[in-house]
């Protein structure tokens, strides 16, 4: 859909005869749409497809959170516009939660903002920080939603390579200057936890380059083997240079509710709330009340959710090992990151698994060019389905190693 004019500038996008703005053409292509379409066709043809290509939680929102929404939905004060910066009770609750969970003391008024989920906050932050033509560094491989806001802001995306030899941590000494950096630990897609020098390196990098650091802590509650979760804001100096974003989507299975938090630099929080004022008027108050119920959950709630994912991880990694595919167990998050067997091409391999085994995996290059050669398998399926997926993969792996192709 990208039209190129003679001077090489992308023109406005054309949909039918209607002309859309150039920024529509600048938005990154949705890499996984081809795979999604193939998967849907296969399901429609009656195949029993196991979809490990996406990370959509399968477990229910804990009932005490749903009950809070129910009891608050009828309140007049929430049916009206709530304060544009959100409920102060939720901010206060978030400050208590940060202190208890990460030992980080935050001023709830100045240093915490309420978001309508992390996805939109990521776009808002790029719009707030980047001038057209300015550069942003994104963890590569990494979550593709960082790319969209950079494109909407007219910024330039650069890779911050996360290499296996470095435990999927950035090499800060080699990082070029930029205005904005997107980091994420526990990391989607590799499952790596932050290394001991990763956050201190980020703060030092920000001080010498003037960059804003954004740390995506979507999986702070999904950590395995008793390892502690780490907050970027616990790093000395972090608060002066960045923001940390958290989400209710994975910790509490609230992906459909659209609620999240941003915390850190008071200046950045003020900027974020200003742009939010212009774009929307805060989330439904009853949902924010449900967010308070979530943050005040007994610790067994998130611990139980992490354990559920850990059991699924163990089922999948062990099943794949028996199938003859050694995959390193992730330290956190909801994905396994696996090198393509026999060093093959990941897109070809994903097509092969779909057509031969009815198993969907996501080719790693969809998360950036440093993801090439890997596939991502999601833990958002019951353990028995993950074991079944591993069995099916084991049945077809010999054919792949013999040079199988999706058409052969
Ligand atoms: C799932 C996920 C999120 C969650 O985003 P929401 O918009 O809050 O649902 C954010 N970052 C990463 C890396 C994720 O995988």
Summarize the structure.
With 408 residues, the protein is α/β, with parallel strands linked by helices. 40% of the residues lie in helices and 14% in strands. The protein folds into 2 domains: 20-60 and 300-401, Aspartate Aminotransferase, domain 1; 63-298, Type I PLP-dependent aspartate aminotransferase-like (Major domain) (Aspartate Aminotransferase, domain 2), CATH 3.40.640.
Topology:
Blueprint: E1 14-15, E2 18-19, H1 22-26, H2 33-44, E3 50-51, H3 63-73, H4 76-79, H5 88-102, E4 112-115, H6 118-129, E5 135-140, H7 145-152, E6 156-161, E7 180-184, H8 198-209, E8 212-216, H9 238-241, E9 242-247, E10 260-264, H10 266-279, H11 285-295, H12 299-322, E11 335-339, H13 346-357, E12 359-360, E13 362-363, E14 374-378, H14 383-401
Parallel strand pairs: 3-12, 5-6, 5-7, 7-8, 8-9
Antiparallel strand pairs: 1-2, 4-10, 9-10, 11-14, 13-14
The structure holds pyridoxal-5'-phosphate.
Written account of the structure:
- With 408 residues, this protein is an alpha/beta fold.
- The chain has two domains: 20-60 and 300-401, Aspartate Aminotransferase, domain 1 (Alpha-Beta Complex); 63-298, Aspartate Aminotransferase, domain 2, CATH 3.40.640.10.
- It is built from 14 helices and 14 strands.
- It has helices at 22-26, 33-44, 63-73, 76-79, 88-102, 118-129, 145-152, 198-209, 238-241, 266-279, 285-295, 299-322, 346-357, 383-401; strands at 14-15, 18-19, 50-51, 112-115, 135-140, 156-161, 180-184, 212-216, 242-247, 260-264, 335-339, 359-360, 362-363, 374-378.
- The strands form four sheets. The chain has a seven-stranded mixed β-sheet, sandwiched between helices. A three-stranded antiparallel β-sheet has the order 11-14-13, with helices on one face.
- Helix 6 (118-129) crosses helix 10 and helix 13 crosses helix 14.
- The longest helix is centred in the C-terminal third of the chain and has 24 residues, at 299-322.
- The protein is globular, with a radius of gyration of 22 Å.
- It starts with 13 loop residues before the first strand and ends in a 7-residue tail after the last helix.
- Residues 1-9 have low confidence and may be disordered.
- The protein binds pyridoxal-5'-phosphate.
- The site of pyridoxal-5'-phosphate (PLP) has 14 residues, from helix 6.
């Amino acid at each position: 859909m990208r039209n190129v004019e003679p001077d090489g500038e992308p023109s406005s996008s054309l949909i039918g005869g209607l002309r859309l703005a150039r920024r529509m053409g600048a938005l990154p292509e949705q890499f996984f749409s081809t795979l999604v379409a193939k998967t849907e066709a296969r399901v429609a043809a009656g195949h029993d497809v196991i979809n490990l290509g996406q990370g959509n939680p399968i477990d229910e929102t804990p009932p005490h959170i749903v009950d809070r929404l129910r009891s608050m939905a009828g309140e007049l004060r929430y049916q009206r516009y709530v304060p544009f910066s959100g409920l102060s009770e939720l901010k206060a609750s978030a400050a208590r939660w940060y202190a208890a969970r990460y030992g980080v003391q935050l001023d709830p008024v100045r240093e915490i903002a309420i978001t309508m989920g992390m996805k939109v906050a990521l776009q808002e932050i790029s719009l707030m920080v980047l001038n057209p033509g300015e550069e942003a560094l994104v963890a590569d491989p990494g979550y593709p939603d960082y790319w969209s806001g950079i494109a909407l802001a007219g910024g330039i995306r650069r890779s911050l390579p996360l290499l296996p030899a470095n435990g999927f941590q950035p090499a800060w000494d080699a990082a070029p200057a930029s205005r904005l950096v997107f980091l994420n630990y526990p990391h989607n897609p590799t499952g790596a936890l932050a290394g001991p020098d990763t956050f201190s390196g980020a703060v030092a990098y920000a001080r010498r380059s003037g960059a804003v650091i954004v740390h995506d802590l979507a999986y702070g509650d999904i950590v395995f083997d008793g390892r502690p979760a780490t907050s970027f804001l616990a790093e000395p100096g972090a608060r002066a240079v960045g923001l940390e974003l958290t989400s209710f989507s994975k910790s509490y299975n609230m992906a459909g509710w659209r609620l999240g938090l941003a915390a850190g630099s008071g200046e950045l929080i003020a900027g974020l709330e200003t742009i939010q004022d212009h774009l929307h008027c805060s989330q439904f108050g009853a949902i924010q009340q449900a967010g308070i119920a979530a943050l005040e959950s007994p610790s067994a709630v998130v611990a139980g959710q992490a354990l559920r994912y850990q059991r699924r991880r163990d089922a999948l990694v062990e099943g794949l090992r028996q199938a003859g595919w050694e995959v390193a167990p992730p330290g956190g998050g909801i994905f396994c990151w696996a090198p393509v067997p026999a060093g093959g091409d990941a897109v070809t391999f994903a097509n092969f698994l779909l057509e031969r085994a009815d198993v969907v995996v996501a080719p790693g290059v969809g998360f950036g060019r440093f993801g090439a050669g890997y596939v991502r398998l999601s833990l958002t399926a019951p353990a028995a389905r993950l074991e079944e997926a591993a069995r099916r993969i084991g049945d077809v792996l010999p054919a792949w190693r013999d040079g199988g192709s999706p058409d052969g």
